[in-house]
Specification:
This protein is mainly α. The protein has helices at about 5-30, 35-40, 45-65, 70. The protein is rod-shaped, with a radius of gyration of 20 Å.
Length: about 80
């Protein structure tokens, strides 16, 4: 697995984990399953902070993958043309 593929995989995983954390925070806010989250010591603030951190990691890894010099090429090496 290449460097860019790993960065994009990390970006994808943290993106979905961030959405899951936001959904869990919404459930706690609405009072659905509040006892489950308080039993494992997760508050609304902790879930929100986890979601924000996941989205920041996602953005950083995607931007780094786009800014990578390897990202400029499509994976196909161009042969020099003889004049």
């Amino acid at each position: 697995m290449g460097h860019l593929a790993r960065l994009q995989l990390v970006g994808r995983i943290t993106y979905y984990v961030g959405w899951i954390a936001l959904l869990c925070g919404t459930l706690v806010h609405l009072g659905i399953g509040r006892t489950i989250f308080t039993a494992i010591s997760l508050t609304k603030r902790n879930l929100f902070e986890a979601a924000v951190v996941c989205f920041v990691i996602c953005i950083a890894s995607e931007l780094r993958a786009l800014a990578s010099p390897e990202g400029a090429t499509s994976g196909v090496l161009k042969k020099p043309v003889a004049a």
